[in-house]
Specification:
Length: 400
């Protein structure tokens, strides 16, 4: 474009000079003062033409240099093997609790690395630098016995490879979340509420349904209206650790998604885990059902779960119901009801939680969340559930 304007200016200058030289006039009619003015104008235009010619020469040299560089066909620098993607999540909480001190908290500081080695072979890792290192302790009478690190509290979260067997089947090998509960498998950056459902935040040995990690292998199948996952894992909660028994955990999840009218999605599913650990580790069996319904700005989720833990047998059961509505591209409102009976053998120990939430979306899954939680417990509820109380959460979240 610039070069075209320069050529146009040169052409225009030449035309002006030509028109000046060939204006019809007579020697008697032309006065000396007019001749002087014409000569000055011609000299001025000549200087302009010379200047334009110099600028045109510079542009031609630059254009020639650019074409020479392009002709070398330089290749972009690529990773040695495949492609790499980097992501992350940062969450800062403010928690107000009428039975505990108000506090700020860095809940998550995740870095995610993933890559594709070949069209069939992928890898994924995630670390969370906000994890708090926890120690396992034992007592001998009143004295402190052994002390060891709780491996599940280390920063490494996920580390696995995925191999695509066919368009419908994949295999995952490594450490990742055990495939149970839609609430557990939802990404940390995509949670509707600040915290997960009640039965996925309980202590591991006291009824937690899912939201746990272990090392193992699983096969995933995806069909037009159905999906399934079947896996074998180290027994118990073995995140970042080796197994202490030959017994393994068998875990499965399956779902059906019937075809609905445009804009609607429905999935109903079942999941379960069989973890008969013998005398080395306590039993951890799980069974649950889930439902998800999406229709435009409306979202409805429901789950029910049963947990069998330890010696002697302690059976917990409960569930949750969530409804969310997106008022605009910036605001979403949500409501959740949770109920959990930690031991069906004991009466009057049920916890019921009501949560009201509002989400303000900044960009993508970067958002600010506001949650008001009311917990209802009886005097017979176990100590790990706490007491009846009201909590207020604010989560500032950046996701990339």
């Amino acid at each position: 474009m610039q070069r075209g304007r320069e050529l146009f200016a040169i052409t225009l200058g030449v035309l002006i000079i030509a028109s000046t030289l060939f204006v019809p006039c007579t020697a008697n009619a032309q006065e000396p003062s007019a001749d002087d003015a014409n000569r000055r104008e011609i000299a001025k235009l000549s200087k302009i033409i010379i200047d334009l010619q110099k600028r045109l020469q510079i542009l031609e040299e630059k254009d020639k240099s650019a074409k020479l560089t392009k002709s070398k066909d330089l290749k972009p620098v690529m990773p040695a093997d495949g492609t790499i993607k980097i992501g992350g999540l940062m969450q800062t909480w403010f928690v107000s609790d009428d039975h505990n001190p108000n506090t700020f908290r860095t809940r998550r500081m995740e870095l995610i690395f993933s890559g594709v080695l070949t069209p069939r072979f992928k890898w994924f890792t995630k670390v969370d630098f906000a994890k708090l290192l926890i120690l396992n302790t034992t007592k001998s009478g009143s004295a402190l016995g052994s002390v060891s690190t709780n491996q599940a509290s280390r920063a490494l979260q996920d580390a696995f490879v995925t191999y695509t067997l066919s368009p419908k089947f994949t295999v995952d090998i490594g450490q990742y979340k055990i495939p149970m509960s839609q609430d557990s498998l939802r990404g940390n950056d995509d949670l509707i509420f600040v915290e997960r459902a009640l039965f996925n935040t309980l202590p591991n040995a006291n009824g937690r349904i899912a939201d746990t990690r272990s090392l193992g292998a699983q096969v995933n199948g995806r069909f037009r209206n159905a999906d399934f996952t079947v896996g074998v894992f180290d027994g118990g909660i073995r995140q970042n650790d080796i197994d202490v028994s030959d017994n393994k955990s068998l875990v499965g999840r399956a779902g059906f998604s019937p075809k609905l009218s445009s804009g609607q999605k429905l999935r109903v599913g079942l999941y379960g885990a069989e973890e008969e650990m013998g005398a080395v580790l306590p039993r951890r069996n799980r069974l649950g059902a889930e439902l998800a319904y999406l229709n435009g700005n409306h979202q409805l989720f429901a789950e029910m779960g049963v947990a069998d833990d330890g010696f002697p047998n302690a059976r917990g059961r409960g569930g949750n119901l969530t409804y969310a509505y997106k008022f605009s591209h910036l605001w979403q409102g949500a409501f959740r009801w949770d109920a959990w009976d930690p031991n069906t053998v004991l009466p009057s120990d049920i916890e019921n939680d009501l949560t009201l939430g509002a989400n303000y979306f900044i960009r993508g899954n970067s958002k600010i969340q506001f949650n008001l939680v009311r917990k209802y417990l009886s005097s017979k509820s176990p100590s790990f559930l706490g007491v009846s109380r009201t909590q207020f959460y604010v989560n500032w979240q950046a996701s990339w």
